[in-house]
Design brief:
Radius of gyration: 16 Å
Oligomer: single chain
Number of domains: 1
Bound molecules: D-xylitol-5-phosphate, zinc ion
Largest sheet: 8 strands, parallel
Distance between the termini: 16 Å
Helix content: 25-40%
CATH architecture: Alpha-Beta Barrel
Mean pLDDT: 97
Length: 226
Protein backbone atom coordinates (compact mmCIF):
# COMPACT_ATOMS: atom_id res chain seq x y z
CA UNK A 1 0.00 0.00 0.00
CA UNK A 2 1.30 3.44 -0.88
CA UNK A 3 1.79 5.58 2.17
CA UNK A 4 -0.41 8.63 2.16
CA UNK A 5 -1.04 11.65 4.31
CA UNK A 6 -3.23 10.60 7.21
CA UNK A 7 -6.22 12.56 8.46
CA UNK A 8 -7.14 12.68 12.13
CA UNK A 9 -10.51 14.35 12.81
CA UNK A 10 -10.57 15.99 16.24
CA UNK A 11 -13.81 15.24 18.08
CA UNK A 12 -13.53 18.47 20.06
CA UNK A 13 -15.53 20.03 17.21
CA UNK A 14 -18.07 17.18 17.02
CA UNK A 15 -21.69 17.39 18.08
CA UNK A 16 -21.51 15.69 21.47
CA UNK A 17 -25.20 14.87 21.41
CA UNK A 18 -24.35 12.54 18.49
CA UNK A 19 -20.77 11.63 19.27
CA UNK A 20 -20.87 7.95 18.28
CA UNK A 21 -22.62 8.80 15.03
CA UNK A 22 -20.08 11.52 14.19
CA UNK A 23 -17.13 9.22 14.88
CA UNK A 24 -18.66 6.51 12.70
CA UNK A 25 -19.17 9.07 9.93
CA UNK A 26 -15.50 10.06 10.15
CA UNK A 27 -14.50 6.40 10.04
CA UNK A 28 -16.69 5.75 6.98
CA UNK A 29 -15.33 8.87 5.31
CA UNK A 30 -11.86 7.34 5.39
CA UNK A 31 -10.33 9.06 8.42
CA UNK A 32 -7.15 7.32 9.58
CA UNK A 33 -7.17 8.18 13.29
CA UNK A 34 -9.58 9.80 15.73
CA UNK A 35 -7.97 12.65 17.65
CA UNK A 36 -9.24 13.12 21.21
CA UNK A 37 -8.44 16.40 23.00
CA UNK A 38 -8.28 16.17 26.79
CA UNK A 39 -8.07 19.57 28.55
CA UNK A 40 -7.70 20.20 32.27
CA UNK A 41 -8.55 23.89 32.70
CA UNK A 42 -5.05 24.44 34.09
CA UNK A 43 -2.44 23.68 31.46
CA UNK A 44 -4.89 25.14 28.98
CA UNK A 45 -7.68 27.56 29.90
CA UNK A 46 -10.45 25.23 28.77
CA UNK A 47 -11.96 22.02 30.15
CA UNK A 48 -13.05 19.26 27.81
CA UNK A 49 -13.48 15.65 28.90
CA UNK A 50 -11.68 12.65 30.33
CA UNK A 51 -11.34 8.90 30.01
CA UNK A 52 -15.10 8.27 29.90
CA UNK A 53 -15.31 9.93 26.50
CA UNK A 54 -12.27 7.99 25.29
CA UNK A 55 -14.07 4.83 26.32
CA UNK A 56 -17.22 5.93 24.44
CA UNK A 57 -15.12 6.73 21.36
CA UNK A 58 -13.49 3.30 21.64
CA UNK A 59 -16.91 1.67 21.35
CA UNK A 60 -17.71 3.70 18.23
CA UNK A 61 -14.79 2.79 15.95
CA UNK A 62 -11.88 0.43 15.43
CA UNK A 63 -9.66 3.32 14.29
CA UNK A 64 -6.68 4.21 16.48
CA UNK A 65 -7.55 6.77 19.15
CA UNK A 66 -4.91 9.51 19.22
CA UNK A 67 -5.29 10.97 22.69
CA UNK A 68 -3.85 14.48 23.11
CA UNK A 69 -3.38 15.21 26.80
CA UNK A 70 -3.37 18.95 27.45
CA UNK A 71 -3.01 18.42 31.18
CA UNK A 72 -0.40 19.25 33.79
CA UNK A 73 1.59 16.31 35.15
CA UNK A 74 -0.56 13.69 33.42
CA UNK A 75 1.14 10.63 34.96
CA UNK A 76 -1.57 9.74 37.46
CA UNK A 77 -4.18 9.56 34.67
CA UNK A 78 -2.26 7.58 32.06
CA UNK A 79 -3.53 4.18 33.15
CA UNK A 80 -7.16 5.37 33.02
CA UNK A 81 -6.71 6.52 29.43
CA UNK A 82 -4.93 3.31 28.45
CA UNK A 83 -7.70 1.23 30.04
CA UNK A 84 -10.30 3.35 28.23
CA UNK A 85 -8.78 2.33 24.90
CA UNK A 86 -6.25 5.00 23.92
CA UNK A 87 -3.96 3.80 21.13
CA UNK A 88 -1.48 6.59 21.60
CA UNK A 89 -1.03 9.22 24.27
CA UNK A 90 0.67 12.50 23.55
CA UNK A 91 1.76 14.74 26.40
CA UNK A 92 3.00 18.31 26.31
CA UNK A 93 6.68 18.86 26.92
CA UNK A 94 5.70 22.08 28.76
CA UNK A 95 3.46 20.13 31.19
CA UNK A 96 5.82 17.30 32.13
CA UNK A 97 8.77 17.97 34.47
CA UNK A 98 9.80 14.31 34.13
CA UNK A 99 9.08 13.86 30.46
CA UNK A 100 11.40 10.88 30.03
CA UNK A 101 9.64 8.97 32.80
CA UNK A 102 6.21 9.95 31.52
CA UNK A 103 7.02 8.61 28.05
CA UNK A 104 8.33 5.38 29.56
CA UNK A 105 5.10 5.08 31.54
CA UNK A 106 2.99 5.48 28.40
CA UNK A 107 5.00 2.81 26.60
CA UNK A 108 4.81 0.43 29.53
CA UNK A 109 1.01 0.69 29.31
CA UNK A 110 1.20 -0.66 25.76
CA UNK A 111 0.38 2.64 24.03
CA UNK A 112 2.29 4.63 21.46
CA UNK A 113 3.95 7.66 23.00
CA UNK A 114 4.03 11.20 21.73
CA UNK A 115 5.11 14.69 22.63
CA UNK A 116 3.29 17.90 21.68
CA UNK A 117 5.07 21.23 21.31
CA UNK A 118 3.38 24.57 21.89
CA UNK A 119 4.05 27.24 19.27
CA UNK A 120 6.82 28.84 21.35
CA UNK A 121 8.63 25.58 22.14
CA UNK A 122 11.64 24.82 19.92
CA UNK A 123 12.17 21.55 18.06
CA UNK A 124 15.24 20.88 20.22
CA UNK A 125 12.93 20.19 23.20
CA UNK A 126 12.49 16.60 22.00
CA UNK A 127 16.13 15.85 21.16
CA UNK A 128 16.86 13.78 24.30
CA UNK A 129 13.66 11.73 24.17
CA UNK A 130 13.36 11.08 20.45
CA UNK A 131 14.22 7.40 20.97
CA UNK A 132 11.04 7.06 23.06
CA UNK A 133 8.69 8.68 20.55
CA UNK A 134 6.15 7.28 18.12
CA UNK A 135 4.64 10.66 17.30
CA UNK A 136 5.16 14.39 17.61
CA UNK A 137 2.36 16.95 17.53
CA UNK A 138 3.31 20.43 16.36
CA UNK A 139 0.75 22.85 17.76
CA UNK A 140 -0.14 25.35 15.07
CA UNK A 141 -2.37 27.29 17.49
CA UNK A 142 -2.04 27.94 21.20
CA UNK A 143 -3.84 24.90 22.59
CA UNK A 144 -7.17 25.08 24.38
CA UNK A 145 -9.78 25.84 21.75
CA UNK A 146 -10.94 24.67 18.35
CA UNK A 147 -11.53 27.01 15.44
CA UNK A 148 -8.47 29.24 15.88
CA UNK A 149 -6.34 30.63 13.07
CA UNK A 150 -3.32 28.68 11.86
CA UNK A 151 0.07 30.08 12.91
CA UNK A 152 2.39 29.79 9.88
CA UNK A 153 5.47 30.52 12.00
CA UNK A 154 5.46 26.89 13.16
CA UNK A 155 6.23 25.65 9.63
CA UNK A 156 10.06 26.03 9.81
CA UNK A 157 9.98 24.11 13.10
CA UNK A 158 7.92 21.38 11.42
CA UNK A 159 10.59 21.07 8.72
CA UNK A 160 13.29 20.92 11.39
CA UNK A 161 11.43 18.15 13.21
CA UNK A 162 11.09 16.21 9.96
CA UNK A 163 14.89 16.37 9.58
CA UNK A 164 15.38 15.20 13.16
CA UNK A 165 13.01 12.28 12.57
CA UNK A 166 14.81 11.27 9.37
CA UNK A 167 18.18 11.46 11.14
CA UNK A 168 16.86 9.30 13.99
CA UNK A 169 15.91 6.49 11.60
CA UNK A 170 12.76 5.95 13.67
CA UNK A 171 9.21 5.78 12.40
CA UNK A 172 7.69 8.80 14.09
CA UNK A 173 4.44 10.35 12.92
CA UNK A 174 4.69 14.12 12.52
CA UNK A 175 1.27 15.57 13.24
CA UNK A 176 0.13 19.16 13.02
CA UNK A 177 -2.76 20.43 15.11
CA UNK A 178 -4.76 23.64 15.01
CA UNK A 179 -6.25 25.69 12.20
CA UNK A 180 -5.68 22.94 9.66
CA UNK A 181 -8.15 23.26 6.77
CA UNK A 182 -8.14 23.14 2.98
CA UNK A 183 -6.30 26.48 2.84
CA UNK A 184 -3.46 25.50 5.18
CA UNK A 185 -3.06 21.72 4.81
CA UNK A 186 -0.72 21.79 1.82
CA UNK A 187 1.88 24.00 3.52
CA UNK A 188 1.84 21.62 6.50
CA UNK A 189 2.53 18.63 4.28
CA UNK A 190 5.20 20.51 2.34
CA UNK A 191 6.92 21.28 5.65
CA UNK A 192 6.98 17.57 6.45
CA UNK A 193 3.82 16.79 8.42
CA UNK A 194 2.28 13.41 7.59
CA UNK A 195 -0.77 13.55 9.86
CA UNK A 196 -3.29 16.39 9.62
CA UNK A 197 -5.39 16.89 12.74
CA UNK A 198 -8.56 18.81 11.95
CA UNK A 199 -11.56 19.72 14.10
CA UNK A 200 -13.69 22.43 12.55
CA UNK A 201 -12.63 21.46 9.00
CA UNK A 202 -14.31 18.07 9.52
CA UNK A 203 -17.13 18.60 12.03
CA UNK A 204 -19.31 21.52 11.03
CA UNK A 205 -22.96 22.35 10.59
CA UNK A 206 -22.12 23.72 7.13
CA UNK A 207 -21.01 20.46 5.49
CA UNK A 208 -21.05 16.75 6.19
CA UNK A 209 -18.22 14.87 7.84
CA UNK A 210 -17.66 12.99 4.57
CA UNK A 211 -17.40 16.26 2.65
CA UNK A 212 -14.98 17.68 5.22
CA UNK A 213 -12.64 14.68 5.09
CA UNK A 214 -12.83 14.54 1.29
CA UNK A 215 -12.02 18.23 0.84
CA UNK A 216 -9.07 17.97 3.19
CA UNK A 217 -7.76 14.92 1.39
CA UNK A 218 -8.15 16.57 -1.98
CA UNK A 219 -6.27 19.65 -0.80
CA UNK A 220 -3.16 17.49 -0.34
CA UNK A 221 -3.85 15.05 -3.18
CA UNK A 222 -0.76 13.61 -4.86
CA UNK A 223 1.40 14.64 -1.89
CA UNK A 224 3.13 11.72 -0.28
CA UNK A 225 4.63 11.79 3.19
CA UNK A 226 8.27 12.98 3.06
C1 LIG B 1 -6.57 22.62 20.17
C2 LIG B 1 -6.74 21.12 19.96
C3 LIG B 1 -7.03 20.78 18.56
C4 LIG B 1 -8.37 21.28 18.06
C5 LIG B 1 -8.21 21.63 16.61
O1 LIG B 1 -6.10 22.85 21.44
O2 LIG B 1 -5.58 20.43 20.34
O3 LIG B 1 -6.94 19.37 18.33
O4 LIG B 1 -9.40 20.36 18.21
O5 LIG B 1 -9.33 22.32 16.18
P1 LIG B 1 -9.35 23.10 14.80
O6 LIG B 1 -8.99 22.13 13.73
O7 LIG B 1 -10.76 23.60 14.70
O8 LIG B 1 -8.35 24.22 14.90
ZN1 LIG C 1 -5.37 18.27 19.71
Amino acid sequence: MTAQIRIAPSILAADFARLGEQIKAADQAGADLIHVDVMDGRFVPNLSFGALVVEAARRSTQLPLDVHLMILEPDHLLKDFADAGASSMTVHVEACPHLHRTLQNIRSLGCKAGVALNPHTPASAISEVIHLLDEIIVMSVNPGFGGQSFLPEVLPKTAQLRQMITASGREIALEIDGGVHTGTALQCVEAGADVLIAGSAVFSSKFSVAEGVKALRESVANKKPV
